[in-house]
Amino acid sequence: MTSLNSAAVAAAKKIKLLLLDVDGVLTDGHLYYGNNGEELKAFDIQDGLGIKLLQRGGVQVGIITGRVSKLLQRRADELGISPVVQGREDKLTALGELLETMDIQMDEIAFIGDDLPDLAVINRVGLGMTVANGSATVAASAIWQTSRCGGNGAVREAAEMILAAQDKLDAILATYQ
After folding, report:
1. CATH number, residue 23
2. Where are the alpha helices (DSSP H) in the chain?
3. How many whole angstroms separate alpha carbon 139 and alpha carbon 146?
4. 153 domain residue, yes or no
């Protein structure tokens, strides 16, 4: 499923908003705790640049996650990610609430998730995606699966796929030469 199929390309052409799960997508899915109980998360810098590339290409990036983390909000602020919805186990309901406040259609939304709490959203958006190490059930429902694992450049790979499908990637990359 990592190769570009016609369904994924067709869906990616319409995308105006990429929504991300966090643990297992923006991070490697491991939970790290320090001796004093503090939570630590590692974010891939290439994913961050992928998010910036999407924003330069006119694609908004947002987050819907079941957990709450100050670290996540800090990273989202650094990258200009909005909306950020934290602490929502029912991600489909959260998505419905977002749609009430945004001028966007379901087929204009992509979502990357990795496990069962993401499945309902993956099944309803225009471009449901998962990471290489996503659960088998989620992978079976996703339109496209990255070749990279969550927290290791999967978001960057998805960003470049969307921008390539929209014929925007080459022009954006050319600005770095």
Report:
1. 3.40.50.1000
2. 6-13, 45-56, 70-79, 91-101, 119-124, 136-141, 154-165, 169-174
3. 10
4. yes
Could you list the residue range(s) of the whole structural domain that residue 102 is in? 6-174
C-alpha closest to that of 118 among 54, 29, 47, 51: 29
- pLDDT tens digits along 145-174: 999 999 999 999 999 999 999 999 999 999
In a domain, 1, yes or no: no
Split into its structural domains, the chain has a count of 1
Report the 10 Å Cβ neighbour count for 84: 17
Is 56 contained in some domain?
Answer: yes
Tens of pLDDT, residue by residue over 44-87, are 999 999 999 999 999 999 999 999 999 999 999 999 999 999 99
Place of tokens 């470049």: 160
